[in-house]
# Entry
Amino acid sequence: MFSRNTLILVALAAVASAQTSITLTNDCTYQVDPAFYPDAIASDGSATGGFPLAAGASAGVTLDPTYSGRIWGRTGCDSDGDCATGQCPGGENCTGPAAAGPTLAQFTLDGYDSLDFFNPSTTDGFNVAITITPGAGCSVGPQSCTADNEGTGCGDTSACPTGTSYTVSFC
Ligand SMILES: *[C@@H]1O[C@H](CO)[C@@H](O)[C@H](O)[C@H]1NC(C)=O
# Structure
């Protein structure tokens, strides 16, 4: 027999596992500060609008099950979160989207039919190359914007089963 507490724990585990994992990888030779609007969830469980990522470094965040928003990279940021490109309101921890157009990685998780929809996009502009690579369980290959409206699938929307993990890489 399951106890009531066991059932509650099982329910909590189901909610936690419904979050989508995003690995951010900085393949640039310079620091890139990933930014999120709306907020992602950092590895310590706190909400995050962005943080610095050193050249060659990776970081993991999760997105809420029905997240619909954008991830972008900021370049040339100082310790106050004042950046040469991709600047957002709120400093390092963004509280809104960038006013001047960076390259975007757009995600709508569980949009319909248990599918996630995503694209790399330069509709707002281009500041750094972005590649979105779906993980296991999705047959879609890497989708990238390597320059304004150039790359493999730049601006094209792809779909993967909800629950897929993604890597978003810069450069
Ligand atoms: C970033 O802002 C969110 C609120 O949007 C807050 O919950 C979080 O603690 C902040 N993180 C840091 C590192 O300041």
Summary: The first helix runs from residue 4 to 17.
